[in-house]
TrEMBL record:
Substrate binds at H109. PANTHER family: 2,5-DIKETO-D-GLUCONIC ACID REDUCTASE (PTHR43827), NADP-DEPENDENT OXIDOREDUCTASE DOMAIN-CONTAINING PROTEIN (PTHR43827:SF3). Residues 21-259 form the NADP-dependent oxidoreductase domain. The keyword Zinc does not apply. SUPFAM superfamilies: NAD(P)-linked oxidoreductase (SSF51430). This is Aldo/keto reductase. The record marks K76 as: Lowers pKa of active site Tyr. PROSITE patterns: ALDOKETO_REDUCTASE_1, ALDOKETO_REDUCTASE_2. Keywords: NADP, Oxidoreductase. InterPro entries: AKR, Aldo/ket_reductase_CS, NAD(P)_OxRdtase_dom_sf, NADP_OxRdtase_dom.
Amino acid sequence: SIQDTYTLSNGIKIPVMGLGVYKNVDETELETAVSSALEFGYRHIDTAKVYKNEKGVGRAIKNSRVPREEIFVTTKVWNNDQGYENTLKAFDRSLKELDMDYIDLYLIHWPMPGTYVDTWKALEKLYKDGKVRAIGVSNFNPHHLQDIFNECEIKPMLNQVEYHPHLAQPELKAFCKEHDILLEAWSPLKRGRMFDEPVLVKLSEKYGKTPAQIILRWDVETGVSTIPKSVSADRVRENGDIFDFELTSEEVEAITALDRHERVGKDPDKVT
Ligand code: NAD
């Protein structure tokens, strides 16, 4: 079901399917997206300081009347808040904006050269202090993760990266698997730019599902958690409605073979 979970390396469960709220700054839109998601059964919301909507997310969760502890909430430390002390402060601000006592998952949004190791040490402190149930990173390549392994105590529990059939990330995926780091897909739908792929169209006809649903099902079957974004209640429901069919292993492979190393977002090795 939509409440299926993966278990992170520290034993914390994270729902496979979440709702992304990037660029949802309009209060009504945000409220619609979050409330229709929670009503449909989503229990995982992905926000970030830089999305400027933590306050609205917190409010929408409260208004939903689903108990806080049943919802998995992720937020992220933005690039200009990195470094040890700044990250601790940024975390407190996010907590205040969300109006919550704890966060389920706190991520380093991008590997900022020179500061991400110190930022990670701050996340370790927040974790040890019990302010966050799990800690992880976003947009980290193996060499960034290796720096963390070399200099820190705790391994990230999750890495949220751009992932869709045109960017299937085989090396990064194998590396994360080896280190027990869950991969999570951002822009899982390539922002709507690959629905006409013949492989997807054919499978969509076979299963009576949309290409978006085929892609999201592929995420789940490749062991990745996924956070598609939509502001329309219908699409939020459509994206969550992928737990009543299964792709065959050949079909999963055919989708994976669409990989062409094509990004819609920034290259993590080019952030400054
Ligand atoms: P996405 O691939 O989820 O695409 C979203 C867009 O696809 C929507 O705006 C809509 O136009 C379209 N869409 C959604 N559902 C559809 C459907 N069923 N049918 C047809 N079209 C549909 O892209 P995204 O918003 O970039 O990524 C999802 C989430 O990932 C974000 O909201 C955010 O939470 C997260 N994210 C994280 C990072 C990062 O650096 N960590 C970067 C980008 C996004």
